[in-house]
Amino acid sequence: MPHVLVVEDDDKIAAPLVRTLEREGYTVERVAEGMPAIDRVREQDVDLVLLDLGLPDMDGLDVCRQVRDNGYRGGIIILTARDGELDLVVGLDVGADDYLAKPFGLSVLLARVRALFRRHGIDAGPAAAPATPAPAPTTGVRVDVDARRVWVADTELPVTSKEFDVMALLDSKRGAVISREQLINDIWDENWFGSTKTLDATIGRLRQKLEEVDAPARITTVRGVGFRLEDVPDA
């Protein structure tokens, strides 16, 4: 499985990030400063670097520049609170492959990671499967993670950004129950302090949209646990 190096000094961000990546089956290491990251990448067994720019010992852009100058050819995704166009351009110019501004949904990050592995020709194993969904002949419902689009047969389902994130997470383990906690943590951030009714409202809108097009799949509630996207072959 791919080897991911998380370079992030904020424990509140790094911990859920590491857990999520490990849950996908990736081998994950985490360092909190730039120089240890440069030294670790030099060992040549890291497939992807998730790189924060605001590190305590040096700017993440300098880390990116140095690992590229040292010959690193793996993937680099910058994670930062800086969302200005200039920072984006500079980050890409010094060798980053992609750029995510904080806060971001973990499901969105995973989609970017899988897409980057494909571009680099890295076999991501089972974790990559949701990123390339094939049309399902028995259900007709498919989620295109890269394009962020949901299809029911040949009809595109109009969804908002959060609706897509919920649908993509449920679809990634279709038939299995996804807990309310995981949905909130992965899509709204584990530090979300808003009402959980936000999740219920999003699920409600998705159910209505699936019903309106007679989609042969439905979102069911598992009381006290979470939700499940399941196929309904005879719909």
Write a structural description.
It comes from Knoellia flava. With 235 residues, the protein is α/β, with parallel strands linked by helices. It has 2 domains: 3-128, Response regulator (Rossmann fold), CATH 3.40.50; 133-231, Orthogonal Bundle (Arc Repressor Mutant, subunit A). Helix content is 39%, strand content 22%. It is built from 8 helices and 11 strands. It has helices spanning 11-23, 34-41, 60-69, 85-93, 106-119, 161-172, 180-189, 197-212, and strands at residues 3-7, 27-31, 48-52, 75-80, 98-101, 141-144, 149-152, 155-157, 177-179, 217-222, 226-231. Helix 2 (34-41) packs parallel to helix 3 (60-69) and helix 6 crosses helix 8.
What descriptive keywords fit this protein?
two-component regulatory system, 235 residues, transcription cis-regulatory region binding, 5-stranded parallel sheet, 8 helices, WH-like_DNA-bd_sf, DNA-binding, OmpR/PhoB-type_DNA-bd, Arc Repressor Mutant, subunit A, 2 domains, Rossmann fold, 3-stranded antiparallel sheet
